[in-house]
Automatic annotation (TrEMBL):
<dbReference type="GO" id="GO:0009697">
    <property type="term" value="P:salicylic acid biosynthetic process"/>
</dbReference>
<dbReference type="InterPro" id="IPR015890">
    <property type="entry name" value="Chorismate_C"/>
</dbReference>
<dbReference type="Pfam" id="PF00425">
    <property type="entry name" value="Chorismate_bind"/>
</dbReference>
<keyword id="KW-0413">Isomerase</keyword>
<dbReference type="InterPro" id="IPR019999">
    <property type="entry name" value="Anth_synth_I-like"/>
</dbReference>
<protein>
    <recommendedName>
        <fullName>isochorismate synthase</fullName>
        <ecNumber>5.4.4.2</ecNumber>
    </recommendedName>
</protein>
<dbReference type="GO" id="GO:0008909">
    <property type="term" value="F:isochorismate synthase activity"/>
</dbReference>
<dbReference type="InterPro" id="IPR005801">
    <property type="entry name" value="ADC_synthase"/>
</dbReference>
<comment type="similarity">
    <text>Belongs to the isochorismate synthase family.</text>
</comment>
<feature type="domain" description="Chorismate-utilising enzyme C-terminal">
    <location>
        <begin position="123"/>
        <end position="385"/>
    </location>
</feature>
<dbReference type="InterPro" id="IPR004561">
    <property type="entry name" value="IsoChor_synthase"/>
</dbReference>
Length: 400
């Protein structure tokens, strides 16, 4: 049984210092609620889908018994139930407040030439959207999120610390992360890096927040046009339906764990530097905070995959994704974050992300397809979503 929360440690570092101290192999996670930098491996959490929260609680209890102060489990879990997982109890954890926009950002591009390979080509993606729409017409699916991949190769190793710093600087409120996800056989260390706008779930002292997003339009430079887009999103039947699937499922799952669940019936629009999204902030309190089955990781596992990355019904959407997408998603559309000894923690949806390995960067972006979706608009939406990473790589405009 985990000890009760009495006094929580206060951050003793500056957010900018934590970001500057990040090195490949470390775990970094920051959001509007604070920053965390972790190094070394005290223990590894080995468990499969559905048992990770209990395994994490056991490993955390053992770490505390062994004298580790305030142990935390950090890491990432891939999209598929059987996909890769990287969960560890780090040896050293440093915390700080939320990052700010004035953090130092390194220069734009460090590679003089890149090769860019879309997988599939644009026409192939549009075709997959048409096939998904046929499944929706047939009544097999109500929603499916279809993703595509860009494989970039630079003329030298991609410096992950600079990429991470540029992502944080561009959007300090995002859930930014860098996680070592190296696997046997990788030609170089592999890092999952990104700046997700979507909080899957956070739990602090028993207070739970989830912030599902779905229904999107690209952000542009012209503010009048942006105002039109915000109004268009709020009134779009198609986008509201796409969003409602996610809100309903997240609320239903959290309802199994929480009391005082508050689920707004009307979405609002949130902006990232590159996108506008319909957003619903759902709050509640865990009914049984001491139960490891209600930890932040347990809630995250129960929620995953939400219809923001998979579809409705979930099982049919998963098989359709396997049939219609050409590339394995790996860690994309999974979850990334941390959970502590008390069951608190924060997990975000692994989107606006890439896996960096040596000179190669694989990035994914997806779009929710519902009745009424237009293949060319969904293709454009995925291109706009790639801009988060492409901008940070100094490559904005490189992909139509
Ligand atoms: C699947 C992604 O975004 C999700 C989150 C926000 C809006 C979404 C949408 O409108 O389709 C997606 O559900 C992605 O960025 O790859």
């Amino acid at each position: 049984m985990s000890p009760p929360v009495l006094v929580r440690p206060r951050p003793v570092h500056r957010a900018a210092d934590l970001l500057a101290a990040y090195l490949p192999g470390s775990f970094y996670y920051s959001s509007a609620r604070g920053s965390l930098l972790a190094d070394g491996v005290h223990a590894t959490v080995r468990a499969h889908h559905g048992t990770r929260a209990h395994a994490a609680a056991e490993v955390l209890d053992a770490a505390a018994a062994a004298g580790l102060v305030e142990p935390v489990v950090t890491g990432a879990i891939g999209f598929r139930p059987d996909s890769e997982t990287s969960l560890v109890v780090p040896a050293v954890v440093r915390r700080a407040g939320a990052p700010t926009a004035d953090a130092d950002a390194p220069p734009a591009s460090w590679s003089t030439s890149w090769s860019i390979t879309p997988k599939p080509e644009s026409a192939g993606y549009a075709d997959a959207v048409r096939r998904a729409l046929a499944l929706i017409d047939d009544g097999e699916l109500r929603k499916i999120v279809l993703a595509r991949c860009l494989e970039l190769t630079a003329d030298g190793p991609v410096p992950v610390p600079s990429l991470l710093a540029r992502l944080v600087r561009a959007d300090p409120a995002a859930q930014a992360f860098a996680v070592d996800v190296s696997a046997p056989g990788d030609p170089a260390p592999r890092t999952l890096v990104g700046a997700s706008p979507e909080l899957l779930v956070s739990r602090h002292g028993g207070e739970v927040v989830a912030n599902p997003l779905a229904g999107s339009l690209p952000r542009v430079a012209d503010e009048a046009e942006n105002r039109r887009r915000i109004a268009a999103l709020l009134s779009s039947e198609k986008d509201r339906a796409e969003h409602a699937h996610v809100r309903t499922q997240v609320a239903e799952v959290l309802g199994r764990f929480c009391v005082d669940l508050a689920v707004p019936t009307e979405p609002v629009v949130i902006g990232t530097p590159t996108m506008w999204h319909l957003s619903t902030r759902i709050t509640g309190r865990v009914a049984n905070p001491a139960d490891p089955g209600s930890s932040a990781l347990a809630l995250a596992e129960a929620l995953h995959p939400t219809p923001a990355v998979c579809g409705v019904p979930t099982a049919r959407a998963r098989t359709a994704i396997a049939d219609l997408e050409s590339e394995d998603r790996g860690y994309y559309a999974g979850l990334v974050g941390w959970t502590d000894l008390y069951g608190d923690g924060e997990w975000s949806v692994t989107i606006r992300s890439a896996e960096v390995c040596g000179r190669t960067v694989r990035l994914f972006a997806g779009a929710g397809i519902v009745a009424g979706s237009d293949p060319s608009a969904e293709l454009a939406e995925t291109s706009a979503k790639f801009r988060t990473l492409l901008r940070a790589l100094g490559l904005e405009g490189a992909v139509a």
